[in-house]
Automatic annotation (TrEMBL):
Residue ranges, annotated region (Disordered): 68-92
Transmembrane stretches, start-end: none
Gene3D superfamilies assigned to the protein according to its UniProt record, in alphabetical order: P-loop containing nucleotide triphosphate hydrolases
Protein name: Septum-promoting GTP-binding protein 1
Superkingdom of origin: Eukaryota
Key words of the record: Nucleotide-binding
Annotated Pfam families: Ras (PF00071)
Positions with biased composition (Low complexity): 82-91
GO molecular function: GTP binding; GTPase activity
Length: 283
C-alpha cells in the first residue's frame, strides 16, 4: 500500500514536472517566434531606410559673408537682406537645417513648372524622381543660418494618393495648388486637403493658384467669380491665398519667403492684394 502511494506520488511529481517543462517549451517557442518576427521587421525597416537614403541629396555651399555671393532675388528682382540663395560647390551638411514642404494638386496644373522656377534648372537635374513623387532641394542662408527646403511634389493622379503620407508627414508647410483657368482643380483641393490632414495637422496651409498669365486673359466677370471662389476656399482651409505664374515668376519666390517668415519670425511681411486683374494675395 505504501509502495503504491509512493509510486502515485512520484507519478504526480513527474506529471507536474512534465507540465512545467511543456510550459517552458511553449514560452521558449513563442519567444523564438517573437524574436524571429522582430528580426524580420528590423530587416524590413533597414531595407526601407537603405532605399530611402540611397540617393544622396547634396546641398550647394553657402559662401562666406565676406565673399561675393548671389542673393535670392524676390519677385521684384531686389535683394532680400535676410536670405541668400545657394551657389556652386558643396560643403559639409553638419550645420544645415532641413525643412520639408509638400505640394499637392491635380495633374497638368503647373506644379512642376512652379517648383523648377523656384529651385532652378540645375537642381531639377539632381532631383529624386519616383513613381508619383518628385523631390527637389533648395538651400539658402537666413540670417546666418543654412536652411534647406526639401520640396515633395506629388503627382496629380488620384492613384498618387498613396504617396501623400510620405510626402506630408513632418512637413512644415503644404502648398495646395490649382489651375486658375480650371475651376474643377480648385474643387479638387478639398480632397487633397482632407487626405493630407490625415497625416499632418500642423503644417502651414497655402492655397496657390497657378497660370496667372493665362487667367488675366479671361473676361473680368469670370476673373471676379474665380477670385471670389478661391478666397472662399482659402478661408475654409484657413490658408493664405496666392495667385502665381511660373512662366513670369509671379509670386513664386514670395510664397517661399512667406513660409520662411512664418517659420522663423522674420521681419518680412507680405501686402494683401485683392485687385481684380492683379496677382491676388489674401490672408
Amino acid at each position: 500500500m505504501a509502495t503504491q502511494k509512493s509510486h502515485d506520488g512520484a507519478t504526480g511529481k513527474m506529471a507536474q514536472l512534465c507540465r512545467k517543462i511543456l510550459h517552458v517549451n511553449i514560452r521558449w517557442s513563442i519567444s523564438q517566434k517573437i524574436t524571429v518576427l522582430r528580426q524580420f521587421l528590423c530587416l524590413i525597416w533597414h531595407r526601407i531606410l537603405v532605399c530611402s537614403t540611397r540617393y544622396n541629396f547634396r546641398y550647394r555651399r553657402i559662401l562666406s559673408p565676406r565673399r561675393n555671393r548671389s542673393t535670392a532675388a524676390g519677385d521684384s528682382g531686389q535683394e532680400d537682406p535676410t536670405t541668400t540663395s545657394s551657389s556652386s560647390g558643396y560643403d559639409s551638411d553638419s550645420d544645415l537645417v532641413s525643412l520639408k514642404i509638400s505640394i499637392l494638386g491635380d495633374s497638368q496644373i503647373g506644379k512642376t513648372s512652379f517648383l523648377v522656377k523656384y529651385v532652378g534648372d540645375e537642381e531639377e537635374k539632381r532631383s529624386l524622381q519616383m513613381k508619383g513623387l518628385n523631390v527637389m532641394d533648395k538651400t539658402m542662408c537666413i540670417q546666418g543660418a543654412r536652411i534647406a527646403f526639401r520640396i515633395w511634389d506629388v503627382a496629380g493622379e488620384k492613384r498618387s494618393f498613396d504617396q501623400v503620407p510620405i510626402a506630408c508627414k513632418d512637413a512644415v508647410a503644404i502648398l495646395f495648388m490649382f489651375d486658375l483657368t480650371s475651376r474643377c482643380t480648385l474643387t479638387s483641393v478639398v480632397e487633397w486637403y482632407r487626405e493630407s490632414r490625415k497625416w499632418n495637422q500642423t503644417a502651414i496651409p497655402i492655397l496657390v493658384g497657378t497660370k496667372f498669365d493665362d487667367f488675366v486673359q479671361l473676361p473680368p466677370d469670370i476673373q471676379w467669380t474665380i477670385v471670389t471662389q478661391a478666397r472662399a476656399y482659402a478661408r475654409g482651409l484657413k490658408a493664405t491665398l496666392f495667385f502665381s505664374s511660373a512662366k513670369h515668376n509671379i509670386n513664386v519666390n514670395k510664397i517661399f519667403k512667406f513660409i520662411m517668415a512664418k517659420l522663423f519670425n522674420l521681419p518680412w511681411t507680405v501686402d494683401r492684394n485683392l485687385t481684380i486683374g492683379e496677382p491676388i494675395i489674401d490672408f
